[in-house]
Amino acid sequence: MRKKLLAMMLATAMGLSLTACGGEGGDGGSSGDGGVSITIFNSKSEVQSQFEAMAEEYSKTKGVNVEIYYSNDTVAAHMATKYSANDPYTISMVDAKDVYSLAEEHAADLSNEKWVANTDYAISVGGKVVGFPVCVEARGVIYNAEAIEAVTGKEFKPEEYKTLDAFQGLLDELVAGGMETPTGIMKEDWSLGAHFLCEVYEEQPDVEAYISALHAGTADLANNPKWTAKMDTFDALKKYNYAAGSPVAAEREVTEQKLAEGEIAFMFGGNWDWSVINAYEYSEKMGMMPVPQNTDDGANEKLVGGGSKYMFIDSSENTSDEQRQAAKDFLNWIVFEADGNAFLTEQCALVPAFSNVNAEALDPLSASVKKYADEGKLIDNYNYFPDDHLSKCGASFQKYLADQIDRAGFAAEIEEYWKNLEARSALVCKICPSVPCPGV
């Protein structure tokens, strides 16, 4: 049912009056010098420059002309535009939900590719492997162990602070030792609404059932144990936030610089934050730990994450067999060639989703993620949030961060968001009222 919903939402989006980008697919895949040309859509902004540099070098060494594209539009809308214009990318790097929505009509079968045996994260639709996992990402609390140890005088062991009570004690110790404000909070809606808040759902005993209850208006978020545990922790981060006086004015770069250089000790985030942290005089003794919680469900011993960003190859007549083969060769280059491995782990600083890829060069945050992944300590991402969850729920979270609403008011706004999903998309409620559809 979900796949049908996604396909219908895509079809609806294609009917929008959107302006198509470029016309790079019109030459049948031949470059000006007679070689094959492929296009790659990158939806991960922090590695755009790395992809562009890679494309230039790959084009020279492999004789395949590679062009990289990025868009600020939502992925669903942008992909709808490209397909409605019969101008698809050869390879599209998108989120898991986009693969599920597009694969049946637009993704080539990759089941027989060699790399399939080297990963646990590939996406299959209709019995066929269609999604190539680009990397593994996870969220948690980023720490600067060097800064902590400079104040406490003892080795920092994150496993000793898995409960909020223990974590609170450490924060108090840091304050007493002279670090007045040991935490930082990123105010961006994607960090609050698409990351921290989502963990409230993702750590429920039955994620699908809980989201369906929210959608039906029967969930009592304010009295949910996971909501309480997560928000208690957020309140501790908020209390010691260096930007507590004007939290929604705090710039991400400033927050991450303070963390990198040890002015603060903790910040909720993900391993992708290294792309910002590494621009500063960072400490090597950094890492990620699970969000501390007073809970007995084991969630405070795990990060939340999994496969993040997937590539699929276009199956339409707008892409030639020669282009498709060049695209498959590119995916194999990432997995099986030293230069491809280095591009993934060294240039892009991404945690590989493949067992054979050497990850010794990973940054400290990504090394933490790989450790938790190798130990089976990742709570799965939920990949089916509506596209406006980030902006609408993120805005409510920003109000809470700025003390414009209390916790009960915040919970009420989140509940209202889910109940109003029906009003925002009659399509969803007519077809399957109990399941919200990605892309709404």
Oligomeric category: single chain
Strand segment tally: 10
Q: How much helicity do the residues have? A: 40-55%
What proportion of the residues form beta strands (DSSP E)?
5-15%
Mean pLDDT: 89
| Cα Rg | 22 Å
Largest beta-sheet characterization: 10 strands, mixed
Tally of individual helices: 18
* Low-confidence regions: 1-27, 424-440
Class from secondary-structure proportions: alpha/beta
- Tell me the distance between the termini: 15 Å
General form: globular
Commentary on this structure:
Helices cover about 45% and strands about 15% of the residues. The protein contains 18 helices and ten strands. Strands 1, 2, 3, 4, 5, 6, 7, 8, 9 and 10 form a ten-stranded mixed sheet that branches. Helix 1 crosses helix 3. The two termini are about 15 Å apart. The N terminus and C terminus are likely disordered.
Summarize the structure.
By secondary structure, the protein is an alpha/beta fold.
Features:
single chain, 440 residues, alpha/beta, 10-stranded mixed beta sheet, 14% strand, disordered N terminus, disordered C terminus
Topology:
Elements: H1 2-14, E1 37-42, H2 48-62, E2 65-69, H3 75-84, E3 91-94, H4 96-106, E4 123-125, E5 128-144, H5 145-152, H6 164-176, E6 183-184, H7 189-202, H8 207-216, H9 225-239, H10 252-260, E7 266-270, H11 274-277, E8 286-289, E9 303-313, H12 321-336, H13 338-347, H14 364-374, E10 378-380, H15 389-401, H16 407-419, H17 421-424, H18 426-431
Parallel strand pairs: 1-2, 1-3, 6-7, 9-10
Antiparallel strand pairs: 3-9, 4-5, 5-7, 5-8, 5-9
